[in-house]
Protein: N-alpha-acetyltransferase 60
Amino acid sequence: MLEQPMLDVQATYVPSVIYRPILPSDLDVLEQIHAKLFPIRYEREFFLNVVNGHGIVSWAAVDIGLNSQSDELIGFVTTRVIAAHDSEIEDLLTSDASRKDATLVYILTLGVVERYRNHGIAGSLVREVTKYASSMTNCRAVYLHVIAYNQPAINFYQKMQFKLIRKLHKFYYIKGRHYDAYLFVYYVNGGRSPCSPLDVLSTAATYIKGLLKLLATKLWKKAEKKSPRWSKCKESSTLLLTQNKRIIGSDNTICQCV
Ligand SMILES: CC(C)(COP(=O)(O)OP(=O)(O)OC[C@H]1O[C@@H](n2cnc3c(N)ncnc32)[C@H](O)[C@@H]1OP(=O)(O)O)[C@@H](O)C(=O)NCCC(=O)NCCS
Structure:
């Protein structure tokens, strides 16, 4: 008799997810999930502020189960609305963002319980945030920091069309060690400066890249005319190496509109 294949419940389970504000009844689970997902410990006060909506705007992803009778917290996003002129990204915004009432939404924490990942849950949570930010006419952007080694989160925010704006050297200090961070921004309500310093940098980088290419071609042609064969190869590989370095450098450059 043929053996029946085992059913992988985990792989076939499709959660019934709803999104709602985080409630006081979520307090303990929210704290437990944060402890599991993040290397930083958050104070009890932070969670109390989240569940009571004190200065923090948040959304929960909840699995309500097949019969809609469950209420299991499986994901969350917590944010704070801040004044644009107090922020570190003021220079990247349209000039009207320096108005007193211009605001930004800063994402404090975002997380999805491991077994619920890659179902688009974080995507839906972040869309709630961008919708909320867009609905406030004085809001100019949503922004956040990601620790430099958190590749899943970096992939995620890039997929969500956030722009990687800059790398912040030693931004985090965790358990006696420094870590770099990336700053991501999602502009809303025309918040992006038409000619931000990044645009200028990016244009300059493209121009210099073109110039170097031209120089490399000229040098190559010159070497081709003058040098014996072995010397020509040496020259070309040096140039190629220099070009590769630039390409790698410019792909990974942090101060670049992505
Ligand atoms: C980052 C995180 C919130 C994504 O949650 P999620 O619900 O799985 O995200 P979604 O399903 O909406 O999107 C998945 C996308 O994110 C990226 N991604 C998510 N998990 C990934 C992983 N383990 N490895 C690589 N990429 C990953 C992929 O680009 C994927 O895109 P795809 O759908 O085209 O494959 C989740 O991995 C998490 O909770 N991580 C721990 C906490 C954290 O790092 N939070 C972010 C910093 S505050």
